[in-house]
Every structure is written in structure tokens, then in C-alpha cells.
Structures
1.
Amino acid sequence: MNLRRLFIKILLVTCMFTFSTNLFANEQEDLKAHFLEELSDIIKIIEDKQLSKDRRNSKIVAELTPMFDFKLMAKLSLGKRTWLKLSKENQKKFVTSYVERMKNSYSSKIDSYENEEIKITDVKRKKSRISLETEIATAEKNLKVVYKFYKPKKRKKDKDIWLIYDVEIIGISILKADKAQFKEFLRTKSINDLMKALAKKQTT
Amino acid sequence: MKKSKLVIFILILITFNFTSCSSQDVQTPTKDEIVHQEDVADDDFDDFEEEMEVKEIYDPFMSYNRSMTNFNDGLYENFFKPVNKGYLAITNSEVRVSINNFFKNIYFPMRFFNNILQGKFHYAFEETGRFVVNSTAGCLGFFDPAKSKMKLMPHNEDFGQTLGFYGVGPGPHIVIPLFGPSNMRDAISFFPDAAVSPIDYTDRDWPTLTKTWFELIAVKSVEKFNEVSLYSTEYEEIRKDAVDLYPYLRDLYEQKRAKEIEE
């Protein structure tokens, strides 16, 4: 009887363990599948030669928007201390200008990398973060790009379950790079100057 | 018996909890939840604070670096960019890749020694395999069959990375004319790497590619122009993303080097 009880316990514990790890693995697989789906949608847009450049890029940005947590990225790029110092109005304004610049920067990168091939090379999970490692192959070189996802405690409106909060290109985190340059910029200039500089870059 | 029933009950409860958790994720949140989310949004920061910490870069030569960055950028805009336009017009992508392959291949000794110095013997071995295959089957290194056919991957290591591997810090950031961002450690490392470089004109015990300093400059120029042709799009994208070019380039460089050393 004792042995049987022990057996049931062990069975249940192992069941639970496999179940929970499966759940983990499934989330990674789901995310990967979702990413590939989005990617093929984007490629379809790029291949549609009838679209004008602006129309095409805005369509791509619309496709990407649910995947990115732009607001969080904007906040992180300033860092907690600077962010909290801003007035509510400036916070809003900064997020808008940061997001606009981000979208433009992506559009411009899409323009410069046509005929690219993207493949997922690895998916890594660390608690509530998943990093999706991809490789973009152009005719001339391979670029390693890592998309970093996190899972908000509560799902955000019009957004995916897992959201991108940073992108790493050949080992360089774009968010960290922005944080460093904004910090340097704000040493001598004001937040309004920074917003102006971000807006100016869009028009060029 | 009672105790075991309790254990089973708890286990079932936990398992159910898991399923309910996962199904909750799929549900769309109610309006209240979203509003709540906005309110507590500042909590997000704490989760990321450590991850997004930006290291202060030691930069005592800032004003020099800044003007040198402007000089290099001007050089790019007024010299390399127009020359590159012509270069792109007369070469196709295969030629540019082949030239790049050729230069990469002959820098094999640098990668070999630095892999050895860091105790990465299997990489040094793989690099040797690449050199042998690409120098022969790859027509003097113009092609890279080692990677495309035999899956032998390159492992780029230089002396700066070797020093970093043994814990030497980057030192002050220095922008070098023509070459762009660097730091004290990497700038000094240029000399040991050049000592095993096959492109040199000083007396060596092994054959080198060039015999005079004039030839050296000619070969180095080809290498540089080809490099510019491959990376000009990236540079221009970086310029667009920067609100202030110098600190942006500086940080990109230091981040990239730190990552390379980490690997």
C-alpha cells in the first residue's frame, strides 16, 4: 500500500513537471510560429511591386506595431530617473516622437535591405524573456539580429502576448545605444531639444 | 491514506492553476485591466533597470575625439562616398564579396594566434581548415567554400579581444583618423596584429604580399575602399539614427567590442 502511494505521488509529480515544461516549450514554439507568420506577411507586402514606397512602408509599420512595445522602449531609452522627472505632457510628447523616429528608422532600413533572406537560428528563454535569434542574409553579408521579447503581466490593448522591447544587431542593443546617446545629449541640452533632434532626423 | 489524498488534491489544484494561467493569457483584457496597466506601468522599469544599464565610457579625450569624428565623417561624405559611387558602378556584388573574402583569408595568422592565445584550440583548428580549403579550392581565398560547402565557420579574434579575454579593460576611447572609433587597448593591439599580417613591406622570414610602402598603401587602399562599399549603407543608417554622431558611434563601438570579447 505504501509503495503504491509513493508510486502515485511520483507519477503525479513527473506528470506535472512534464506538463509545465511543455507549456514553456509551447510558448516558445507559438512565438516562433507567430513571428514567421508576420514575417511572411511583411515579405508579401515588400514583394507587392504595385504599392508606392510610402504606402508599402506604412503597411509594414502597421504590421509590426502589435509586436513592439514602443511605449516601453521610449521610456527605457530615457531611463527611470529622467523619465520620472518629465511632466506628464512631456512624457506623452516624448513617446510620440520616439515612436515616430523608430518607425521611420525601420522603414529606411527596409528600403536599404531588399532581397534579404531571414531565418530563425535560435530561440532562448530566460524566465519572462524570450530572445529570438535571426540571421539576415543579403548577397554581401550575414547580419545577426536578435529580437528580445518580454511578457507583460497583463496583456496590453491591441498588442501581442509577447512584445519586443529591444533589438540587438550584431551584438549591439539599439535601446542601450539610444539610452547612452540620449543621456549624453541631455547632459548639455534639454528634453525639448532632444525631441526636436528626433523630429529633424525624420525629415532628412 | 488521507494524507496522500490531500497531496493528490493539491497537485491537481496546481495543475489546474497552470492551465488557467495559460488560458488567461489568450483572453483579451477588459477595459479596466488596461487602465490599471497604464497606472502601474512605471513598475515595468524595475524589471528592466539592471538589463538596460548603460556603462559610462571613459572618455578623457572627448573634444579631440569629437573633432576627429567630424573629420572622418567629412572624409566619408566628400571623398569615400563619391569614390564609392564609382566603385559600385564598376564592380558587382560578387566581385566585392570576393575581394572581401580574399583579405579575410590572408589575415588567417592573426585569427589563428589569437584563438590559440585565448585557449580556443578547436576554433584555431577550424580556422586552419578554412585557410587550407579556401586558399586552394577557394582560388586563393576569393571564394569561401569552407563555409558554404563544409560548414567550417570563421572565428574572428584579434589581439584586442585577446587582451580583453584576460581582463584588460578598454581604456580611454580614441577616434583614429581614417579608421574611426577605437580605444587604447584596441589601438595598441594593432601592432602585434600587424606583426603577423601578411600585408607588409618590412623584412620577414615569410613571404609577404607587398614589397614597398607604396605597394602596401595601394593594397591597403583597395581593402579600405572595398570595406567602405560593403558597409556604407550601415554607416548611413547609423548617421540617421544618431541625435549626436560622436557619442553614438563611440557607444556602438564599445558595445560591439564588449560583446565580441564576451563571446
Note: The mean pLDDT of chain A is 82.
2.
Amino acid sequence: MAETVIKVEDLRKWFPVRLGLFRTLISGEKLFVKAVDGISFEVKEGEILGLVGESGSGKTTTGRLVLRLIEPTSGKIFYRGREITKLSPKELLPLRSKMQIIFQDPYESLNPRMLVGDIIAEPLRVQKLVESESDVREKVFEILEKVDLVPPEEFFYRYPHELSGGQRQRVATARAFVLNPDFVVADEPVSMLDVSIRASVLNLMLKLVRERKASFLYITHDLALAKHICDNIVVMYLGKVMEKSDAERLIKEPLHPYTKALMQAVPVPDPEARRIEVVIKGEIPSPINPPSGCRFHTRCPSYMGNICKTKEPPLIEVESGRFVACHLYGEGKS
Amino acid sequence: MQTQTKSDAENQPILNVDDLTVYYKILRGYVKAVEGAHFKLGKGESLGLAGESGCGKTTVALSIMRLLPPNGKIVKGKILFKGTNIVDLQENQVKRDLRWKRISIVFQGAMNALNPVYTMAQQITEAIRLHEPHVSKEEALERAKKLFELVGIDPSRINNYPHEFSGGMRQRAMIAMALSCNPELLIADEPGTALDVIVQAQVLKLLVELKEKLNLSMILITHDLSIISETCDSAVIMYAGKVVESGSVYHIFKEPLHPYTQGLIAAFPDIYAPKTEIKSIGGQPPDLLNPPSGCRFHPRCQYAMEMCRKLDPAFVEVAKGHFVACHLVGGS
């Protein structure tokens, strides 16, 4: 059994909503955006876990919470069995070399005033993993070659604005992998790239992940892509986990009505299989006042009445390794 | 049914783009945005225009609408809309007879194309009364309400401001506005991008329904091939300003001939296919200031031969209605 690298327990992040001074003084009300509201999952060594959901489902917030880039409101995060939720920045520093992130937009995640070489060398310098400048060059050249930015001596001295989107995302990948992390979060890393470039950048990341036996948390809204690259998938909706399963079974036989709806909305590149069919109406509700009970009940095609409206379904294991949070599969199931 | 509409369409295409060539003038020279584009669209048909960013698909749309920016110029070719060459029309003729009334467009990022300081009612009635001055304010408002109903928004919300709508509803409102003067041809530029998967599917479904209901002809511009396969009758694949392949969706998806089309299709994961590695096309799209010689795809093509570097392949018909520009197919 592979070791668990990251474990998250009942994690919450509520962002306070700024109200006018007057309203706060008079009514004393406090509003929160419940971006992530009690989720649990774990990532094993070498596992590729997909976090899937619409925008506003809390997947990006989750990715940042796991790395302690933002502070959780409550809940626990473990890295290889050690709780890291309460560690100070100083205590966290050595762990940072083990946990890295690749952001969505390579046009914003690279400092335009730094050379590509310095961008990639910065984590090495911060972690004091290099002794001399020649050491830096050696390590950076090596990773530049790995991400196919060749010849490295040329790319080392370029600025981000001289690179295309795909090349920038390769720089971001190099920066994440230069420290040999064993856990990498990638937040929609290819959604800003051109179609023909996407696959090559994605395949590069997967190659590095597999080479190093790293664990990979892949955040995406694209269920089709997740199916092809992930081992397991967690489906989120309004800050909650709706379904959790291995990718194969999840796609073959989705259990949660939300997962089913997501699947039906994915266009298929086969003109004979046309079936544009949308079973659910409306858009994702506001996370400030999420619906009571099951958060999906307002849009659910299998809505069963009172129970869905009042009682929140727990995430239960219906088959080995398959979890779903829906009353259809609770005690009341047939 | 299918064959019936097909043969009708062939008799009289509503739109015929012939050898369209558009350049943008910039300081460093001319960007050859579109070069020798050919395609036809039959009445009541929908056509998908696909390609990566920078391949010229939006430029084609802007040329049809005669909305090119001042530095953009149609240097060659014809755009025949029901037999009239749009390229030759004077600006005031385009304004009076064509834009909105005959052809209208739903822009990319339509969610931001609405004016935030006017209500939806004001914006839609303005569009109607500008193009049809004889319509009274009351009639225009009535029509705007009907349009809202048509696109699935409660007509009572006609007096709302754009910020009061969600992304999907704004996109629907934009579609309503585009339909306000009963056009025959609707161009939708990336209508689903920036929307969530489910909302995107809702919008696409709406477009397909409207097309049937109003007997519209439609051009759908997208980088997502699977959207075209779901919603269109035919497809045109562009690469670096050139049309590389066109045909019915069956031709394009079942028997793609151009290596670029094959690469694009392989780059899209099919959710129902067995787990595979996603294939990529090596290299980068070229700079259109200095496009590659010969076939523009040759630097990235795995089958590139000597002649591909020198000779621009002709656009030949390999099967009825299926055109390809590649030295591997046709000719030699």
C-alpha cells in the first residue's frame, strides 16, 4: 500500500464579506463566502488526483489551502502523517521544497522583470540548495532541458515576455520541479493555452510527475481531460465533495446526479453520438448563502423533496473506494 | 430529411466566401491574417469555423460583418451574401441593409459586450430602432420582451441592468439582441468560452433550437472541435490564416485527411473513449508577419516532404463537398 502524502480532514475556508460600516454596527451581521466547507480527501504516493467542478465550486481554494498558501478557517492538513495546519512560516519552509504549485495563468505567474533563469533559480536560492552561481546554472540548465526549453543557455537569459504561452507554462513547470517536490498542485495549468499546445505541456508535466513518483493534484473543470490523466477524481460543488471515486468507474457509471449532469454537458467529438442534452437548469448558486440541506437540491433532476432540502447528505462509501454524498444512496435507498 | 436540406443548400448557398484574403497593417509590415479562404454556407445550415487563436477565424467573421478595424483590409476575394458581394458595399449600405438586419454577430466575451449603464430594455430597443426607425418605442419594447422569452429569460427582467444577470443569462441576452432585427445569418464567436460546462451546454442547446425554430443559418466560431461536432452540419478548419480542410462534420470527424485536422481531433480527449495518452502537435503556430513558405503547416507536420516546403498545396475537392489543402492528398 502506497504511503499517504497529503491528507485533508474536514477543511473549511470561509472568506469574510466586507459590509458597510453602518450595516455591521447596526445589525452586527457577518457574512461569509463559504468557498470550501468541510472537505476531506487524501493523496497517495504517486497518485494523480483530479479535483473537478464548475467555477465557484472551491477547487482553486482547496489547492491553495493544501499548500498553506492561504490559511484555513478550520480543519486539518497532514503531510506524510505530520500535521502542518498550525506550523509557522519558518517551520513550513523546509516543507515548501516538497510541495509546489503550477498556476493557471502563465502570463501572470511569472515576474516580468526577472530572467527565466532567475525565476527558476529563485526556489533553489530560497531553500539554500545551491552553493555557487555555477551550481545554479548547472541545476537550472538541467531542468530547462527536461522541460524542452533548449538550448538552455539561450532560454536562461530570456524574459517571460519573449516566450509564448506554452513556453511560459514550461518555465512554471521547471520552477515547480527544480526542487524535486513529491507533491505538486496544478491549477488548470493548460486552460489558457492553445489547443495544439495543451497536450504537449500536459504530457510534459505528467512525465516529470511519473519520473519522480510525485503525487499530483490536478484541478480542472474538464471532466474528459481528468478521465484521461487522473487515477482518482473528486467532484466538488459549492465547497462540498459530491462524489469521490477512481476515474474509470466514475466516468463509466457516475452516481451523483451532479456528476451525471456534468458528464452530459461535455461535448463529444463524434457527430454520430450527438446528444446535446442538458438536464439541469440554472447556474451555480451564491456561496454566501448556499442552499440548505444538499447544496445541489435547487438544480437536481432527481430531487426527492423534503429530505434533500433539510438534511445534508453525508459522504458515504457505497462500493469499495466509491464515495457519494446523496440521499439517493443513503438509508432510504431502495 | 438530412439529404433534403443538403441538396437545397447546394443549390443556393446563402453565403459564399471566395478566395478571401485579409491583411492587417502594423509597424513591422503586414500580418497575413487570412489568405485565400474558401467556404460556402447553405440556407438553414450551421457551419463551424475552427482553429487555434491567431488562425484568422475571428477575422473572417469581422470581414463578413464588415467590422474590420481600420488597419485591416480585404485585399482580395469576394464574400457573396445571397449573391451580393459584401466587400463592394458602401459603409452606409452595410449599415442600412446588412448589419443586424441580415447578418448579426454574438461577440466573444459577450458577457462584457453589454453596456453596464443601460438596462437591457434600453439596449435592445436601441438596436431595433436604430435599424428599423419606423418601429415605435412601445413596439420595440414588446419585441424585446418576446426575444427574452425566446432565449429563455423571464420577460419581466427586461428592465434589469447587465450586472444583475449571471454569465449565462448575459450570453442569452446578447443572443436576444443579435436576433432583434430578424437576421438570416447569425455568427457566434466563441459563444461558450468563459462559461461553465453546464451553462455552455445550455447556451449551445439554445442556439441549435433557435436555428431550427427561426430557420437561421449559423456560423459558429470555436477552438473546441467537439462543440462543432455536437452542433454543426459542416466544418471549416483553419490554420495560420489558411483553410486547410472543409466538409461535412462526418467528413471532418470520421475521415479527416489533413494532418492538422487529425492532430486537432486527437488533442481532444473523448470522455467515452478508453483511457489513452493525449496526443500533441509539436511546435508552435507560426508568426503571420512571415508565414512559412509552401504549406504553412509544414514545420509542424510529421509527414512533411520536400515539396511541402516549396509549394503551397491547392485546395482540392477529394469527395463531394470535402476539400483539403495538402500534398499528401489529391493531385500528384
Note: Chain A has a mean pLDDT of 90.
